[in-house]
Every structure is written in structure tokens, then in C-alpha cells.
Amino acid sequence: MYNYNISRQMPAHPILLEARQIAPNQILITYDQPTNLASATNVSNYWIRSNMGPVGIASVGMTDSLNAKNALRPDMAKITPVDNSKTKYVITFNVNAMSGVMYTVLPCYVNLEGRTGYMGENWGPASRNMFTGV
Length: 134
Hints:
Layout: E1 4-5, E2 10-11, E3 16-23, E4 26-31, H1 37-40, E5 46-50, E6 77-81, E7 88-93, E8 102-107, E9 130-132
Antiparallel strand pairs: 1-2, 3-4, 4-7, 5-8, 6-7, 8-9
């Protein structure tokens, strides 16, 4: 269940709209609302799940629970804004995604612009957060 902001009927936190591989070691992620830059670019707020387990760009396997120990780390990847919209970011990994492997991008704790303190998931049923490595 989402915590809805009644006046706008929008979730009170950003939702990942899409994750798309744009280079062998890069994923473009897009949120539905402007994000708090510090939380959106904190690599430790992201997990990459794969059907092959925690290999390549993935930090967790299909059955692993998400926790601080298996989040992405600064030695694995960095996240940078694409433009000034605060909705589009590129995750650049130190290794390439494995071809043919199914990946799922799982952001958590990303706040709306001007806010802090959100402690939940940033994906929903309509999120296109899965892709197959090429």
C-alpha cells in the first residue's frame, strides 16, 4: 500500500517508472516525481537482483532479502543525474551486465525533492524495473 498525499493523489514518495540498460555497464533509471538528490544518488539505496544470483552487476539473487549488507556499494557503482529534472539518473557499474541475465532494479529510501526520512520501497506494480542484459 502506498502512503498517498490526498491533495495531489500522488504517492508521498517517488516511484521508479523504468530501468533500461543503455550501455554494457550502465542503466538509465527514471522516477515519476522529482527526487531528493542525496537519497537518489546514494548507491547504498539500490539493489540489483538477478536470476543468476549476486554476480556481475547484481548484488542479490532471486530469493535473497534486501539488507544493508547486500546493497550496491561505492566500489561497485556510482549514480549520477542525467539532467536537472531530478527524475533521471544513470547507474554506472565497474563491470558489465551479463548478456542474457534477467535483472531487476530495486531502489529503496529515495525521498521526494525537499523531503527526507522515507524508509520504504520505491517501486510499484507499474514499475518497468526489469531488463535482460545485452
